[in-house]
Specification:
The protein is mainly alpha-helical. The protein has 5 helices and 2 strands; from the N terminus they run βαβαααα. A two-stranded antiparallel ribbon has the order 1-2. The two termini are 27 Å apart.
């Protein structure tokens, strides 16, 4: 699901804010929730730049099909796992990402 190699020096991916930095009319989110949620890891996804431009500030329901077109499994999973997107889902995704990270980077004691 999260496998694969990403070239950190390449230009193949950009950071997508699922809950956008400027949510506009498509999102009904309070300023306090936006401030708490915007830069949380659970709200960020790697996405091909052209797909990121397509996603823009669209509502989550319209972003999901765009995420499903990504070549990255973690971004496709975002579309498959969540039907809605709010502060609770951001927290759930972040906890899931932490669990995955603990499995990937286990340190022998």
């Amino acid at each position: 699901m999260y496998g694969g190699v990403i070239d950190p020096s390449g230009q193949g991916y950009s950071i997508e804010h699922v809950l956008p930095e400027a949510p506009g009319e498509h999102w009904s989110v309070e300023d306090e929730v936006l401030e708490r949620s915007l830069y949380r890891l659970g709200n960020l996804a790697l996405l091909e730049p052209a797909l990121n431009r397509d996603a823009g500030t669209l509502p989550f329901a319209r972003k999901r099909p765009i995420y499903q077109r990504s070549e990255l499994g973690s971004t496709r999973t975002l579309a498959e796992r969540y039907d809605t997107w709010d502060e609770e889902q951001i927290g759930m995704r972040q906890r899931h990402m932490a669990d995955v990270a603990k499995e990937i980077w286990k340190l022998p004691l």
